[in-house]
Write a structure and sequence with these properties.
125 residues; Immunoglobulin-like; 4-stranded mixed beta sheet; 4-stranded antiparallel beta sheet; 8 strands
Length: 125
């Protein structure tokens, strides 16, 4: 009798654990990518759209900047193509690595003829 109860308990636990979705599991592992988007005059850009697409899964998440040019995205660690679009500027795509437990900050400044690479001091990309 005890053996049969243990078997049923095992089956129930297996079924419960198997029903967890990959998305449900990944929520506990998400990091926050945050930053600010600015124009050539260093003023924050409201309404810029950032779309982060995972290179591994091709899933995307999108955020829009607020009045201070700030945004944040909850992402699972990995490599992302981050597309940034802002009114009056050509769109750009930046490859960014989201790391677990790290500072995941991506500040973007659009330049006059291109844009400034936020990871290269003073460098155009």
């Amino acid at each position: 009798m005890l053996r049969r109860q243990a078997l049923w308990l095992g089956i129930v636990l297996f079924a419960a654990l198997s029903s967890l979705s990959a998305e449900g599991v990944s929520l506990s592992m998400e990091e926050t990518l945050r930053g600010v988007v600015r124009g050539r005059d260093n003023a924050p850009i409201e309404g810029a759209t950032l779309t982060a697409t995972s290179q591994a899964t091709k899933e995307s998440r999108t955020a829009t900047t607020d009045a201070d040019g700030l945004y944040s995205l909850a992402l699972v660690p990995g490599t992302y193509n981050v597309r940034v679009e802002a009114p009056g500027f050509p769109p750009m795509t930046i490859v960014f690595e989201v790391v677990a437990g790290g500072q995941n900050r991506l500040d973007v400044t659009f330049g006059g003829t291109g844009w400034l690479d936020p990871r290269t001091p003073g460098g155009h990309r």
